[in-house]
Structure prediction request, 576 residues.
Amino acid sequence: MGLSKKDVQHIANLARLEVSDEQIDDYVEKLTQILDMVDALKEVDTSEVLPLAHPLHMSQPLRVDEPTEKNQRDLFQANTEHVEQGLYTVPKVIE
Amino acid sequence: MNWETVIGLEIHTQLATQSKIFSGERTRYGAEPNTQACLVDLGYPGVLPVLNGKAVAMAVKFGLAIGATIERRSVFARKNYFYPDLPKGYQISQYELPIVSRGSVVIRLDDGSQKRVGITRAHLEEDAGKSLHETLKDRTGIDLNRAGTPLLEIVSEPELGSAAEAAAYMRKIHQLVRYLGICDGNMQEGSFRCDANISVRPSGDTELGTRTELKNLNSFRYVEKAIEFEIERQIDVLEDGGKVVLETRLYDSDKDETRPMRAKEEANDYRYFPDPDLLPLELDQALLDSIKESMPELPWEKEERFATDYGLNPVDIQILTASSEGAAFFEASAAGLAGNFELAANWNKGELRAALNRDGLTITDSPVGGADLNSLLRRISDGTISGKTAKEVFEAMWAGEGDADEIIEARSLQQITDVAALEKVVRQVVADNPEQAEQYRGGKQKLLGFFVGQVMQATGSKANPAEVNKLLRAKLDADEN
Prediction:
């Protein structure tokens, strides 16, 4: 299965990655190689195999509904200078 | 051309847990920004989500109430998109294997007819944070307190045929989640939100028309108005030979219109995949059994019981069972009033609600409780006071002057039941008004009301009106002979 330039551009856009025109051909080739490798799996008959949601044969442990965290806003917000009135700030989002 | 409307609703209910769905952070509404956002909620590297068992139990409760299939094994998936109030770059949700699927509820329409509406699925997911575009001058502020709050997204089948049906369905779900105690239903605080998918097609067509999605309809009234507007808009577009564009629109309640949100350059592509940080959720029979046993009486079960136990009419039952708190209040107020339950129903619908509305209170804050009202109604029922006097007593109870008996005693409001004493008043009133008595005897029966009024005035409204009527008739008719 081959990827088109358009596919690569679409994926890059979804991932918010800037990919230049010169890089695109390289990505098309390398990503197609990965898909070809995955394609090889199709040769195995999996009609009897259940889809795997997780490699561990365990189920989800559940937590008791009790608050355990304390307010550490100052500590967390020391990691950024983009804070105002207790809010994290980002460039203006225009709706 | 005749057009047919097809509507499906997605309702987001915030589950009423103490802590978040994947972290031990609090979920209290209205806290200072970002004081309830821990490392997990902030999407820091290296942290892991741990599922809240209470949120799971609440989802199961909802599934059981709507007669749905509870999936014994469900899977959490990542829904990938970028937005500043979603720090991880993905929302943990359920995609292919939701915890609840294929249920239904019955809605009642204004004309009294009923309709069963299918519920495709209900799945657990985490809420995002909040973007504040207006608070700061040059930047958008992000408050992540809400990030990670547990949501149950309830998706209906596209089976709603009008704005009125959509609103009735939304009310039914709202009532149900509150009965179940899994959501506080507070729409102002965003605990109960709704998106609507709407399309129209020529009547009789089987293929669905192109739909639009209306976002964040945060009141019952807006849901109805927004959908009505959108149906008209789509029909206008189609009748003018145009095409409906697949898009998300926002309802502007000030202008009563919908308009497109910023056009997307490309369709959503969420690239769902199973979240490797979370194991499949497996529910064992013991857990399901214990949840089954904790189920409260459901709205439609209560309605049926109210009809049997109290013999009330369907309209009253709808009003009295709208909330479980209101229903409990009615039952406390009606205790021991067999044969006179209608009196309790009327007081609950009338005086009580009027007083609550006047003071802007909910039924749980009522200064007069169900048992308090009951003691008042008993005094009407046993003839101690008239219904009119009871209103005065009720107001005094509302103002905190004491219980019904104390107020009746303190204000000497007992009806005069001493027939001899009443007869004396009646005699006096008739004697004082010979002209009217003459006219009455001459056939002007309506004058009886005048005499009743005179007696009531003379007794300070404490006479039993039925008794006064009886005595007056006897007196006036006797004098005739």
